[in-house]
Amino acid sequence: MSGPAVVRPDAGSAPGQVPPARGGHLHREMLTFAAIGVGGAAVDMAALALAMEGAGANFYVGRLVSYFCAATFTWYMNRVFTFRSRGKPGAVWQWLSFLAANGVGGAVNYGTSSAVVAGGPFLLPAALSPLLPLLPYAAVAAGSLAGMTFNFVASKWLVFRHR
């Protein structure tokens, strides 16, 4: 004899199959946004290296230049891949909207990276002092992570929303 029927959340799935994820579209967008963010961090680091090593800029000026380059890269990639099904106004208007909407995340990014560079030499153990030249790039990574969540929400709901 069997007990009362129980409605399972995975009802309709074949035995042994994983049921479809709830919010799968949102998860895809988040993962794509994060992957593009990693590419953006690489662009950020490369542009920072060019600004500092090639043009002789200090870290803070170099970060302004590198952030602008990375933000432009991530806007384009998110326009093409992450939010591709969304309404697409003119590219210049959308790019400016992206920069404005992600301004708070950009400020968090810049502030975090500046704090890491300013405090890093004092907090880095002496044994790791040979890694000090890599501190600006670790700062970019920390800043990117700090600003990413805000930027996803701003991009999804302000820049790339359905029209």
From TrEMBL:
Q: What keywords are annotated for this sequence in UniProt? A: Membrane, Transmembrane, Transmembrane helix
Gene Ontology biological-process entries: polysaccharide biosynthetic process
List membrane-spanning regions: 30-51, 57-78, 90-111, 131-154
Q: Where in the cell is it found?
A: Membrane
The UniProt family comment states: Belongs to the GtrA family.
**This protein's name:** GtrA/DPMS transmembrane domain-containing protein
Taxonomic superkingdom: Bacteria
